[in-house]
Amino acid sequence: MWHLFGPNSASSYFRLEKAIANWKPTRIQTDSTTNFWTVYKKVADEHDHDLISKCVGDLDTSLLFVSAFIPLVRPV
Question: Domain residues of the chain, as ranges?
Fold first, then answer.
């Protein structure tokens, strides 16, 4: 135990802190273009979700409409 808290414990503690700090991931630098694309992606995803929901609803309606008239069409 003496080797952990001996006369050089302050320098050992400093080296340990430095080693732990080097393990931490570096922070990604952001700029105005990064912020723009983040907001753009969020808005585009919302727009795409709304568009797909509308198209699926329209497709369901179209399939129901067509399926109602299939028995009326007879092959020649």
Answer: 9-72
What string of DSSP letters covers 15-59?
Answer: HHHHHHHHHSPPPPP--HHHHHHHHHHHHHHHHHHHHHHHHHHHH
How far, in Å, CA of 21 to CA of 12, rounded? 14
Q: What is the pLDDT of residues 21-41, one digit of tens each?
A: 777 777 766 677 778 888 999
Whole-angstrom Cα distance, residue 15 to residue 40?
A: 44
Place of tokens 């983040």: 38
Q: The whole model's pTM is what?
A: 0.40
Contact 22, 30 (CB under 8 A): no
